[in-house]
Amino acid sequence: xxxxxxxxxxxxxxxxxxxxxxxxxxxxxxxxxxxxxxxxxxxxxxxxxxxxxxxxxxxxxxxxxxxxxxxxxxxxxxxxxxxxxxxxxxxxxxxxxxxxxxxxxxxxxxxxxxxxxxxxxxxxxxxxxxxxxxxxxxxxxxxxxxxxxxxxxxxxxxxxxxxxxxxxxxxxxxxxxxxxxxxxxxxxxxxxxxxxxxxxxxxxxxxxxxxxxxxxxxxxxxxxxxxxxxxxxxxxxxxxxxxxxxxxxxxxxxxxxxxxxxxxxxxxxxxxxxxxxxxxxxxxxxxxxxxxxxxxxxxxxxxxxxxxxxxxxxxxxxxxxxxxxxxxxxxxxxxxxxxxxxxxxxxxxxxxxxxxxxxxxxxxxxxxxxxxxxxxxxxxxxxxxxxxxxxxxxxxxxxxxxxxxxxxxxxxxxxxxxxxxxxxxxxxxxxxxxxxxxxxxxxxxxxxxxxxxxxxxxxxxxxxxxxxxxxxxxxxxxxxxxxxxxxxxxxxxxxxxxxxxxxxxxxxxxxxxxxxxxxxxxxxxxxxxxxxxxxxxxxxxxxxxxxxxxxxxxxxxxxxxxxxxxxxxxxxxxxxxx
Length: 578
Fold this sequence. Notes:
Layout: E1 12-14, E2 42-43, E3 56-61, E4 65-76, E5 84-89, E6 98-100, E7 103-105, E8 107-110, E9 115-119, E10 123-126, E11 134-136, E12 141-149, E13 153-154, E14 157-158, E15 164-171, E16 178-179, E17 186-189, E18 210-216, H1 228-238, E19 242-246, H2 253-263, E20 273-276, E21 282-285, E22 289-295, E23 298-304, E24 309-315, H3 323-341, E25 354-359, H4 366-374, H5 380-383, E26 397-398, E27 425-429, E28 435-441, H6 449-454, H7 461-465, E29 471-476, E30 493-495, E31 506-513, E32 517-525, E33 530-540, E34 543-550, E35 557-564, E36 569-576
Parallel strand pairs: 1-17, 18-19, 24-25
Antiparallel strand pairs: 2-3, 3-4, 4-12, 5-8, 5-15, 6-7, 8-9, 9-10, 11-12, 13-14, 15-16, 15-17, 18-29, 19-21, 20-21, 22-23, 23-24, 25-27, 26-27, 28-29, 30-31, 31-34, 32-33, 32-35, 35-36
Helix pairs in contact: 3-4
């Protein structure tokens, strides 16, 4: 890390050739832990400006994408109502482009206005899609990350023709904060890292997994004959078991189930069930819908899985600047879940799996996402008290599906809009009652031709079908053993609280088993992202066990450790303080 106080007043060149490989592939997914081992390109002084107050600025690249991380001090929405502008001298030549700030910049992009100008052979206006700019999160934050395509061209001219670029960030023009400070220059030199696409799986790993699909189908597009071939290919590739549909205004749940039957014909003993509470959110499921209720403009459904029930909500809160209305709907949904757990509404049994899915339109205040995940209700006078939504008194977990073949996790993609692609659609779940086995958001343009052919897809299927892409999550439920008529005693599993807690950087995790057991022990961030596997599908004899967990590569925060067997999922929280 380099302080601006150590910079000369002439030129700062931070060469990253010494880091020929990024320690961890950067993913634009709202989880900033992958930036932990990357040194700051520039560390600005904090508390030197009101409003936008830059702090740590980082950059990285591979052979396909340029990545940037920035801490902005104030909680803002990166795609709206801010004055941050990025200037890049893309050929690192002060004699070309616009001469200002000690560089000659060709690239100028205003995040709050979602547009920029490329000062090349001629001035060319551009938007985020023109350069592959995708940022996260879409909600307000003090930290953002984004990527751009290194092969982007504007008006036939390569945007990044050089092995190094000059970098300037400014807010509020000359009156706000600046990186670097006036009189200094900042250069980023490209590394030789090769893009390593995260592994993905489109088919289920295990046929017993329950596949959930959340899909905003863009104002009944699903029923439009002109795009049904695209939808048919998408559904046949995904083959879901439970489908939450949004933006279905002119067709019923029964009509949706009948259409899905033509896409995915039922085998003997199967059928497609449906739920419809009268708004635009529908349920189509291989499992019977045994209860349903409207929650404002959203819909709750209770499914019969055979050996247990499943509580689901399909949601579509209002979009855009409607922060108050959107917060009210999240409050109402979480209140409905709280009351169902307390014996009202659906009156669900303890450890009933919980899934909330849909186009959440989370493009405003982060407070709304907090309510969805943690049960922290904003308007308690109207909607009642806060609660812990999972059965183990923890937050719900965010499946946070990624885009296969891309380093991103967006679910909305609309090139005709000034707003860049972002994550608007969610599948969140109760991690104490089920395990996330797989998740992805299917963006067909990012798939290799061989993958498209293997699944009967075409490259533009998802962008023709809707402005939202299908969001998929596979869940694995623990086996329920009734032991009726048997004399064998049930398995007894105890998972102890880690010690010490809080800890830095290591702690001990202990557990005991009354019988030999095949088990998995994993560690997750509070958002549900798996950060460590201590052991997986390992057979243990009966007895007491203890192992050490080293969190030296993790950031300060609350983590969840989860012990999973065929019959039980046990979780506990621990605090890492560095």
